[in-house]
């Protein structure tokens, strides 16, 4: 670090046109070099995208900028002044605001209370609150950030909660705003609104750093984009001079097929038939309100929707994890939805595979080894038993080794604990287990969440191969691109109901986006709000 | 954070914790005006310095192995069974009933029968908290603690009102038939040679009948049963489907449910096995040593089992080693009380310190070691 530094405070008359400059930032965690000699310069009043696969070092870099980690080498210049950022308070004083992927809001506080939290002045809370109320009104006005200051956070939609996070940063006089994967939880319409907010912030001279893995957003919103790969900054380009294909190639280090190559579907007989499926949660709130559909052999039915509209409950009920009512038949055989037989074991024996939405909570036991995990749910299979009493651990290990080779799991070490694999490789372990068990129907939830582009391409190919092998597939994803490119039919889920089926060839993101917001009659955009 | 090598994790961390516990114990001894070195030598001498010392140490260890295994097996299913004490007392009741009221042709048959009774009674005492946890969500820690008190009260009633022989003032059962006595170490062929008594001239002491005299020790055949049980637990946990399901459920309940593993089944089976193992401890102390059922027969071994499982990293081999260590502390502490002016309560202090350092402060030792190892790595890299 440089001697002449100014902790978290900037010189007033700095003659630099860059809001942030990072010079030679390096950071290692043990033997892992998370950031290696990173140089980046962000001109004031621009939107700068940072893109890269999981584990490329984006989060580490931003954590250094926000004072969570200390860089091993290199310097940070804010408005041309060398600045050390030992903690997040200094980052805030330096004018840096951060909007995290997972919001840091107190759920049962009001918007106003959350905004003041940590920035209270004086002993009496009321002075801070009334001051904040006024500032909030100005900010809301200025940036199209309309939020009711007295609303309780948990009553707000995710999009609004995110606006509160942005307001929090602006209230703290942030000149530089860092957004980490901001659109992961938003509908396309909400995402568009966010980008309009960002554009108006930019117009006011604020500097924005946008971290995302979605190439489309980078192309739409940013002025410049930096690509990270394995801890190094491989390129910084003007967005208009670039293309999604070029950026994808820079991220992965090789050519990537962004579109999934697939032939027309060849649907056979109905495999899974679902009628009037209903699920109540523990508070007796109905989360699934009578869902009916059929899936045929050799067909992918895609369920699109914003997270939290009943997709998780649909998968859980079908997978035997959650009690439900209604009727579900698999190849003509009714499946029990509650009571004895409504469990994952019976489902698997009936020929249903399940790649769960949350691999780290459901799909894998993080402390178990890869080989133990590769038998999870199938540990009763005859091929895994030595005799009546003992399991054949050697057979499971050998089986795992074979699967790891087929699915290119890295590192291919069966005795490594699941938690020590990267997200993409963890997912490959789950996908390998469920596909290799040769199910008649495969439930798939968020197959590529937190998975890097290279692995996404691979997993998508596997799904299509399974379809072409005549299996039925139910695909639930919040990624519209994924739904559009993999599905043979698309259903949109909103508020526990299916909003109708669409053909991926004839529909588009706009139509699906409206359905995802609950709007069925596209001529009246507000019609669905009452639902 | 950097990772510790496996050997350091398994051996070095507990060893350093023990040394720290010993150091603090030494400070306590100095504070009460005693010599730590003398205390240590009396403890080592009393517990390990002679065959008969070992005969006592291993007797205690046998009980701790059973209760430690009980805690271990429940722990792997994510359940903290604090009820080992009560389950061991009920196991004792099972042993007493079997030995007193059933006609056994031979002690070997009685051993099998009494073991079944001990396991059954221990399991039954764990079954109610298990059912309450599985069906009602009543926390197993709370219910098993309550069941310890209920067990104690129940035994006072049964011993005082039902099993107490007519005319006896002692709240204890009648003596078991003498032919049901289990072979002790000093009565077993080959092994007994270690327990020969020697006269001052160095020759083997002979009885009036001209037979060699052996030191009597409480350690008995149950010790070998406990080792078999430890091996059985290891096989169960890591080589059977049931063990796989228990560990899966214990590590990540939601993933286990996703895999179709029944929570009810795992909670019940794990607790029944846990209670059965704790109950089996009674073979050692009730059938093997006291040969009648006394009030408070478990003498805290159920609680020591928690410390043993903790220190043994919930691995059967670790449990055996930790049980021997606690057996040493028990017997060494008794020797202190017998041979020095150090109060026997110091035994409890030392045990407490061992539990504190190996259990609660384990993390402290771990981060310090991790730091040392990372320093070494950096030096090597440089």
UniProtKB/TrEMBL annotation, chain A:
Bilayer disposition of the protein: Peripheral membrane protein
Alphabetized Gene3D superfamilies for the sequence: P-loop containing nucleotide triphosphate hydrolases (3.40.50.300)
Primary localization class, coarse: membrane
CC annotations in GO: plasma membrane
InterPro entries: AAA+_ATPase, ABC_carbohydrate_import_ATPase, ABC_transporter-like_ATP-bd, ABC_transporter-like_CS, P-loop_NTPase
UniProt KW Amino-acid biosynthesis keyword: no
Domain ABC transporter: residue ranges: 20-255, 272-520
SMART domains named among the record's database cross-references: AAA
GO MF annotation list: ATP binding; ATP hydrolysis activity
Domain of life assignment: Bacteria
Alphabetically ordered keywords of this record: ATP-binding, Cell membrane, Membrane, Nucleotide-binding, Repeat, Sugar transport, Translocase, Transport
A Pfam family it matches: ABC_tran
Subcellular location: Cell membrane
Similarity-based family: Belongs to the ABC transporter superfamily.
Protein name per its UniProtKB record: ABC transporter ATP-binding protein
Organism encoding this protein: Fuscibacter oryzae
TrEMBL record, chain B:
Pfam families reported for this sequence: BPD_transp_2 (PF02653)
A GO CC annotation given for this chain: plasma membrane
InterPro entries: ABC_transp_permease
CDD domains in alphabetical order: TM_PBP1_transp_TpRbsC_like (cd06580)
Cell compartment(s), UniProt: Cell membrane
Keywords recorded for this protein, A-Z: Cell membrane, Membrane, Transmembrane, Transmembrane helix
GO MF terms held by the record: transmembrane transporter activity
Residue spans crossing the bilayer: 12-33, 53-75, 110-128, 140-160, 217-237, 258-281, 293-312, 319-338, 350-373
Membrane topology, from the record: Multi-pass membrane protein
Keyword Translocase: no
Lineage top rank: taxon: Bacteria
Protein name: ABC transporter permease
